[in-house]
Amino acid sequence: MEQEKEKAILVGANIDLQGNFLKLMDELENLANACEIEVVGRETQNLIEINNSLYIGKGKAEEIAQKVGALGIDMVIFNNELSGKQMRNLSKIINCEILDRTALILEIFSRRARTKEAKLQVEVARLEYMMPRLVGMHTSLGRQGGGSGFFNKGSGEKKIELDRRRIEDKLTDLRRELEELSKDRETQRKKREESDIPLVSLVGYTNAGKSTLMNYMVDRFVKDKEKRVFEEDMLFATLETSVRKIELEDNRKFLLSDTVGFISELPHDLVKAFRSTLEEIKNADLLLEVIDYSDPDFAEHIKVTKETLEKIGASDIPIIYVYNKSEFMLDKLPLVDEDEIYLSIKEKRGMNELIDMIIDKIFSNYKICKMLIPFSEGSIVAYLNEHANVMETDYDERGTILKVECTDAQYNKYKEYVIEE
Fold it and tell me: Which three-class secondary structure state does DSSP give residue 390?
């Protein structure tokens, strides 16, 4: 039998009539849906400022409490992050589980984490979120009697009644494990840098099509189904950083990485916990910002992505803006305008043009030269044929003459054989 979904009411305070308030509430409902929660109603209130004690007015809280009792609601989800004091006071009035936007996102991350590192990062964020809210959480979830409260489902420590010392000890252990994994990541990063292969990173709002683009590139250039990444039409389908080597037809190579998507008001604890993962982006030579052009809020999504890149110190890396799902908005595709391309990844329209744009950006500093390789150095010819773009091959009595397009490192390594630049 299909398990009955938990029912929730969404609550939002519209401070100073902010322009994107309704969109944020829609996004909150999408987050709830991603947790398989059935949203049965919304309650909103226009306020000049947040109520420090209850987030909303006391009258509104009592009104919500009546609806909770009448409709058999399992939880009330607030659009902003609640303090421990607000949780405690709200739970005295509203007789059900109290969650906020951050708790909901943490729950999604907890469910989607697959690798050891992602699970550790989510657990660190979860415990850091809980620390200042222990008292409020005890009151809110105490009535559940071991019920279905989200934080009772988390990995690691199962009971919400954790004292601060136990949480701090647990955090110390988790951070130590993450530090070890971070060292491994740093070693891998240095190896990549030594290989002199450019790194291209996919960034953008969650569910814009980054993993779809990654899988297109894998299918076309890698031809190994096991290298495909998880792809689903859902928020935060990808949490882990996946790196794939893309080998083009002319022997030029680059690394393509896919990582967690961004979202409005991404919780600070999550940004902090995922910093080592997100910092992969900082090492990129080029960013592909994938944008869902069919979403009416795409401009806001670009803004959120820009702000997140600034937070992690990656705002000065060259960007190609990839306007995906453009088939719903434009008749003629692709459309290329300087650093922007309007295309459809799903329909594979505009992909050749995107690859050309990537090549122009990351291989612009490649050198084209002629080398004369003595016949006795056949291994060098074999290396260049495998790792560089050999454009012409000729022979004379002295050896093999290659017209080759190569990296600075390859040029410097075999500079003694260069006869023409």
Answer: strand
**Beta bridge pairs of residue 10:** 42, 77
Local structure of 325: helix, strand or coil: coil
Number of Cβ atoms within 10 Å of the Cβ of 374: 12
Tell me which H or E stretch contains 290.
strand 286-292
Residue 19: helix, strand or coil by DSSP?
coil
Residue 40's pLDDT is 95
pLDDT in tens, 99-123: 999 989 888 888 877 778 878 888 9
Q: Is 347 helix (H, G, I), strand (E, B) or coil?
A: coil
User: Under 8 Å CB-to-CB from 78, ≥6 apart: which residues?
Assistant: 11, 12, 55, 98, 99, 100, 101
Q: Indicate whether 139 pLDDT > 70.
A: no
Give the separation between CA 192 and CA 190, rounded to whole angstroms.
5
Smallest Cα–Cα separation from 140: which of 106, 95, 184?
95
- Give the percent of the chain with pLDDT over 90: 48
Which whole-number Å values give the CA distances from 188 to 135, 222, 253, 255, in the listed order?
42, 20, 17, 13
Angle of the 84-93 helix axis to the 134-142 helix axis, nearest 10: 20
Instruction: Give the pLDDT confidence of 245-277 residue by residue, as tens digits.
Output: 999 887 788 999 887 777 777 776 777 766 666
DSSP at 52: T
Task: Give CA–CA dist 407/391, Å, rounded.
Answer: 14
Long-range pairs, 29-34, Cβ under 8 A, ≥24: 30/235, 31/101, 31/104, 31/105, 31/108, 31/235, 32/8, 32/77, 32/104, 34/108, 34/234, 34/235, 34/236
Q: Which two tokens stand for residue 47?
A: 């306020």
Residues belonging to the chain: 421
Confirm if 229 and 212 have CB atoms less than 8 A apart: no
Mean pLDDT across the chain = 85
Interior angle at CA 258, CA 255 and CA 261, nearest 5: 155
Four-residue CA torsion sign, 208, 20, 52, 98: negative
